[in-house]
C-alpha cells in the first residue's frame, strides 16, 4: 500500500518503512508525527483519490533527525557596475521514517 502526502508545499509518494527527507518539522528525534494531508491512497489493484484530500486517512511517521542540507551558493552580479555578491544558504530538513498508512477503520481503532 502506498500514499501520496503533501507537506512543506511538496508532494511525496510513501510506503511503510520508507525514509523521507522533508522541509523542517518541529519536534524532537524519536517523536511521532501524523501527516494528515493525504492526496491519494493506493495498492496494486485499486486507488482512492481525494478531492482534494482523502477523508479519514493519515500517515504516521517518526522523526529520525533534523539537520541542515548541503550548501547552495547564491551569486549575484550586475555587469558594468562592479557589483558582485556571493552568499551561501543551508536549508533545514527533517528525516522521517514512515511507520504506517492509516485509513478510516484503522484511525478509529487507534483513536
UniProtKB/TrEMBL annotation:
<dbReference type="GO" id="GO:0019843">
    <property type="term" value="F:rRNA binding"/>
</dbReference>
<dbReference type="GO" id="GO:0005840">
    <property type="term" value="C:ribosome"/>
</dbReference>
<comment type="subunit">
    <text>Part of the 50S ribosomal subunit. Contacts protein L20.</text>
</comment>
<dbReference type="GO" id="GO:0005737">
    <property type="term" value="C:cytoplasm"/>
</dbReference>
<keyword id="KW-0699">rRNA-binding</keyword>
<keyword id="KW-0689">Ribosomal protein</keyword>
<keyword id="KW-0687">Ribonucleoprotein</keyword>
<keyword id="KW-0694">RNA-binding</keyword>
<comment type="similarity">
    <text>Belongs to the bacterial ribosomal protein bL21 family.</text>
</comment>
<dbReference type="InterPro" id="IPR001787">
    <property type="entry name" value="Ribosomal_bL21"/>
</dbReference>
<dbReference type="Pfam" id="PF00829">
    <property type="entry name" value="Ribosomal_L21p"/>
</dbReference>
<protein>
    <recommendedName>
        <fullName>Large ribosomal subunit protein bL21</fullName>
    </recommendedName>
</protein>
<dbReference type="GO" id="GO:0003735">
    <property type="term" value="F:structural constituent of ribosome"/>
</dbReference>
<dbReference type="InterPro" id="IPR036164">
    <property type="entry name" value="bL21-like_sf"/>
</dbReference>
<dbReference type="InterPro" id="IPR028909">
    <property type="entry name" value="bL21-like"/>
</dbReference>
<dbReference type="GO" id="GO:1990904">
    <property type="term" value="C:ribonucleoprotein complex"/>
</dbReference>
<dbReference type="GO" id="GO:0006412">
    <property type="term" value="P:translation"/>
</dbReference>
<comment type="function">
    <text>This protein binds to 23S rRNA in the presence of protein L20.</text>
</comment>
